[in-house]
Amino acid sequence: MKLIVGIGGVTNGGKTTLTDSLLRALANCCVIHQDDFYKAPLFQPQDQIAVGEDGFKQWDVLESLDMAAMLDTVQAWLSSPQKFARAHGVGVQPEASDTHILLLEGFLLYSYKPLVDLYSRRYFLTIPYEECKWRRSTRNYTVPDPPGLFDGHVWPMYRKYRQEMEANGVEVVYLDGMKSREELFREVLEDIQNSLLNCSQEELPAPAPACPARPQGRGHGCGHRTARPAASQPDTV
Ligand SMILES: Nc1ncnc2c1ncn2[C@@H]1O[C@H](COP(=O)(O)OP(=O)(O)O)[C@@H](O)[C@H]1O
Ligand SMILES: NC(=O)c1ccc[n+]([C@@H]2O[C@H](COP(=O)(O)O)[C@@H](O)[C@H]2O)c1
Ligand SMILES: [Mg+2]
């Protein structure tokens, strides 16, 4: 059984923190970080990042990321999770060797069409504008934010891509990034474990006809089906 789980959402929502905790807790689990796919060589990081009409280097647009390369990496995991795990130093646990999880982590996970249908579960962390701006001001990126970047580029691009995602009907499970790290971790871990249980039950032989039918809407999680719909969460601007 293979499960691809997206940990997406707003910058500074807590994606990397949550992903690191899940990675430690889940067996046979690998990770791919979207920001490893910036079209920006280490020593000339800005050359391939265009300046946009907003006057800023376009760090927060999809075109600044090599999404084809990210998709190739996901395909490599799909074709052999065991081989991928070994190559990335992840030990495969023999007692759970039929189950493999891939975490995809990043701020634009659900805007690249070839990837969208591959997820078994799509999480989306949100925090209000003021909290996001404050957390961002405390971060040290490899390329420091120039003055005005957050209001002039980062937040408008977040709003734009999120609106597009919602308009396209991409179904995500919203997570409130204002909850504690521990609460978020427990909530998502439990949900992933439930998905795994549902998947393994679906792989059992079909129940006898007298058994009541499984309720609709909980059959997510395996076979790269769509995540269950979640109520849209208002975005504090
Ligand atoms: N649940 C949380 N509550 C408060 N602060 C958090 C939480 N999760 C992460 N942080 C902090 O917010 C900042 C951004 O976290 P990070 O995981 O790097 O976010 P992202 O990868 O979404 O940009 C870091 O300083 C981190 O310690
Ligand atoms: N990783 C890099 O090379 C790099 C450089 C400049 C800005 N960023 C910022 O990283 C953000 C995405 O990462 P987080 O979601 O972890 O904040 C984007 O908002 C982008 O502005 C990343
Ligand atoms: Mg991050």
UniProtKB/TrEMBL annotation:
Under InterPro entries, the record lists: P-loop_NTPase
Q: Name one GO molecular function term.
A: ATP binding
Q: In which pathway does it act?
A: Cofactor biosynthesis; NAD(+) biosynthesis
CDD domains attached here?
A: NRK1
Keyword Nuclease included in the entry's annotation: no
| Species whose genome carries this gene | Sapajus apella
Task: Give the start-end ranges of region Disordered.
Answer: 207-237
Which keywords belong to this entry?
ATP-binding, Kinase, Magnesium, Metal-binding, Nucleotide-binding, Pyridine nucleotide biosynthesis, Transferase
**Family the UniProt entry places it in:** Belongs to the uridine kinase family. NRK subfamily.
Q: Which reaction does it catalyse?
A: beta-D-ribosylnicotinate + ATP = nicotinate beta-D-ribonucleotide + ADP + H(+); beta-nicotinamide D-riboside + ATP = beta-nicotinamide D-ribonucleotide + ADP + H(+)
Provide the Gene Ontology terms for cellular component: cytosol
Q: Extract the signal peptide range.
A: none
Biological-process GO terms, alphabetical: NAD+ metabolic process; pyridine nucleotide biosynthetic process
Keyword Metal-binding among record annotations: yes
UniProt-recorded name of the protein:
Nicotinamide riboside kinase 2 isoform X1
